[in-house]
């Protein structure tokens, strides 16, 4: 929500694609900055058809789509040799993190005009699996980075930039089902020896969405406390 808050404070109109609509007081707070805020339902396993329908609904509501923040993320922890791993959860992770993100970016790119921005959220462990039990999750995030580099070439001639923000361990992850052991390992593996704040990720996204990033595309910005240093 930190990114949504930052965009709202900047006066942006917001199209929020969520499985569960935020509470009324949250929407009221976002709208208090003057921009329009509309929620669009989405599923845990979005596909090409759903992504296309979502983008069409956004265009119908707002008339245009300038910035896409693709935050498709499902994280499943488990060793690859674990006989008790939840295969359904792993399949949902694959569908959400790769198929869903690809479909959303492709659908959005078709309606963007020159100056459009695609910003995908990835993970710092896409480049380096620093903790056990996250091999498959890391692979899905690496796929996002590779896809966006290719997409930058495809969309560059149209003046649309495509970048990735790779996120490290955040303090808010404690409430997101991440194990304390995993977070502790990721914290100790970064240079700053602390967990990040959601607002720090929001600042990076705002930069890539702003005028100062017009000549940046195909890039990966690590917001991870130096995990990849």
UniProtKB/TrEMBL annotation:
<dbReference type="GO" id="GO:0016491">
    <property type="term" value="F:oxidoreductase activity"/>
</dbReference>
<dbReference type="InterPro" id="IPR002347">
    <property type="entry name" value="SDR_fam"/>
</dbReference>
<dbReference type="Pfam" id="PF13561">
    <property type="entry name" value="adh_short_C2"/>
</dbReference>
<protein>
    <submittedName>
        <fullName>SDR family oxidoreductase</fullName>
    </submittedName>
</protein>
<keyword id="KW-0560">Oxidoreductase</keyword>
<comment type="similarity">
    <text>Belongs to the short-chain dehydrogenases/reductases (SDR) family.</text>
</comment>
<dbReference type="InterPro" id="IPR036291">
    <property type="entry name" value="NAD(P)-bd_dom_sf"/>
</dbReference>
């Amino acid at each position: 929500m930190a990114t949504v808050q930052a965009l709202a404070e900047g006066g942006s109109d917001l199209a929020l694609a969520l499985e569960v609509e935020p509470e009324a007081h949250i929407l009221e707070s976002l709208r208090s900055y003057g921009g329009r805020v509309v929620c669009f339902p989405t599923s845990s396993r979005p596909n090409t058809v759903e992504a296309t329908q979502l983008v069409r609904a956004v265009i119908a509501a707002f008339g245009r789509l300038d910035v896409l923040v693709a935050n498709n993320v499902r994280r499943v922890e488990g060793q690859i040799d674990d006989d008790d791993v939840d295969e359904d959860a792993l399949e949902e992770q694959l569908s959400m993190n790769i198929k869903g993100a690809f479909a959303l970016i492709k659908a959005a790119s078709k309606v963007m005009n020159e100056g459009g921005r695609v910003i995908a959220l990835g993970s710092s462990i896409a480049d380096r699996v620093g903790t056990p039990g996250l091999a498959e999750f890391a692979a899905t995030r690496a796929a996002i980075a590779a896809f966006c580099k290719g997409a930058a070439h495809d969309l560059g001639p149209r003046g649309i930039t495509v970048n990735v923000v790779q996120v490290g361990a955040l303090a808010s992850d404690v409430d997101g089902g991440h194990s304390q052991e995993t977070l502790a390992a990721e914290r100790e593996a970064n240079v700053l020896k602390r967990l990040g704040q959601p607002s720090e990720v929001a600042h990076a996204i705002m930069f890539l969405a702003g005028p100062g990033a017009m000549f940046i595309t195909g890039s990966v910005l690590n917001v991870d406390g130096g995990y990849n240093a």
